[in-house]
């Protein structure tokens, strides 16, 4: 039987008093790679924010990993986020410290204590994204694609049950986008579940997968035409 990591029933998503998405129903099972597409302003980021507790779920039912989004308390949010790996368009690395120290900061903030275990984990995640030799560098010494690979490594630190990537290739040129996408594909093949918002249709064609579309304040699954 497949394991459900995300289930939404009749969810409505608001930004302030404005209805962004309504009647959202969907299930994501462990191991899936799912795209969330739709034009700018269609609600992709609002959707993601609801999943990581940045926007409250006030209407409908939502379960993500082990959390009920409807009854989620402020104090639960950091624990929910430890079970998620979140990747943003703009990387969000701390500019004042090396890559290793960026990752160390996250481990310490999430309760890790033993230095040898932390070092091993940092090496493991940097290796997964092909950045093992660059841990000593500062973010500004890396290209955009490299910074995003580090951000993906950071998302992997606490072995997330679901990775939410909001336009992870949005700031990258097409070739670099493909490199970042290859990393995400490999991570998915190793068993991780990924939900990725994008409006990069070239990537969708190159790496076809289950696709949800935000349009007209609804979310529905679209069937991709083969190329
Ligand atoms: N912080 C905010 N406050 C008020 N409205 C917002 C906010 N963020 C987004 N919106 C509105 O919500 C709608 C969906 O935006 P968003 O979820 O960012 O879409 P996308 O990520 O697909 O571009 C848009 O109409 C946008 O203007
Ligand atoms: Mg967005």
Automatic annotation (TrEMBL):
Please list the residue ranges annotated as the ABC transporter domain.
6-227
The UniProt entry, under InterPro entries, shows: AAA+_ATPase, ABC_transporter-like_ATP-bd, ABC_transporter-like_CS, ABC_transpr_LolD-like, P-loop_NTPase
A GO molecular-function term, please? transmembrane transporter activity
Q: Which Pfam families match?
A: ABC_tran
Keyword set, alphabetical order:
ATP-binding, Nucleotide-binding
Judging by the UniProt lineage, the source's domain of life is Bacteria
Gene Ontology CC: plasma membrane
Which family does the record claim for this protein? Belongs to the ABC transporter superfamily.
Known function = Part of the ABC transporter FtsEX involved in cellular division. Important for assembly or stability of the septal ring.
Which protein is depicted? Cell division ATP-binding protein FtsE
- Source organism per entry reads Abyssalbus ytuae
